[in-house]
Amino acid sequence: MYLDKNNVDIVIRVFHWLLAALFVLLFVTGSNHHDTLHILLGYLLTSLIISRIMWGIIGPHNALWKNYFYTLKSILGYLSKLIQNEPITFKIHNPAGSTMILVMLLILIMVIISGLLTQGLFELDGIFYTLTQYFSDPQAFLVRSTHDALSQIMIFVIIFHIIGVVYSSKIYNINLLLMMINGKPHCFKKEKNS
């Protein structure tokens, strides 16, 4: 979660919403692995993830990957404080939010790799086609099942992410959804005591 007084990087915001839209479209078209649209969207997702990885290396301070890594102790300590309604403010991202971002990217990378392998194994096409000679038929079906399973897991991770955003918005009194749209931190109006 970004709690600095600066605006959220436009590249990060565009990435976030394009990623959300692409994943929804991929999930909807994913029932037919041979769908040309699904494969095209998969390549778009691959390009988007590669661009975000690069932005995390060359982008502004708030986008850099080095700001996303926390120790397990600090993650658990942060979650403990959050559960006790004692939020800790971080300048860039809190330990839980940073970890969620990294987990989602890791799962998406695994979805992409298994999808590219599935394309090579079943479509006899794509960038991993030359690797398919090393896979038996049962292994090919395992790759496709893994791709499907990872996509299902990603749905649960997204739901958990949304719950975390809603809870964090409430506890920090910041409209994180609006902030990811226009880039500016917005506090919710506090109710007056009667």
List the helices and strands and how they pair.
Layout: H1 10-29, H2 36-58, H3 72-83, H4 95-123, H5 137-172, H6 176-182
Please give a quick description of this structure.
The chain has helices at residues 10-29, 36-58, 72-83, 95-123, 137-172, 176-182. With 194 residues, the chain is mostly helical.
Count of separate DSSP helical elements: 6
Biggest sheet statistics: none
Low-confidence stretches: 1-5
> What is the total number of structural domains?
1
**Oligomeric state:** single chain
Overall radius of gyration: 19 Å
Helix amount, in percent? 55-70%
Walk me through this protein's architecture:
This protein is mainly α. It has a single domain, classed as Fumarate Reductase Cytochrome B subunit. It is 65% helix and 0% strand. The chain has 6 helices and no strands. Helix 1 packs antiparallel against helix 2. The radius of gyration is 19 Å and the shape is elongated. The chain starts with 9 loop residues before the first helix and ends in a 12-residue tail after the last helix. 18% of the residues are buried. The N terminus is likely disordered.
Highlighted features:
194 residues, 6 helices, Fumarate Reductase Cytochrome B subunit, mainly alpha, 0% strand, elongated, disordered N terminus
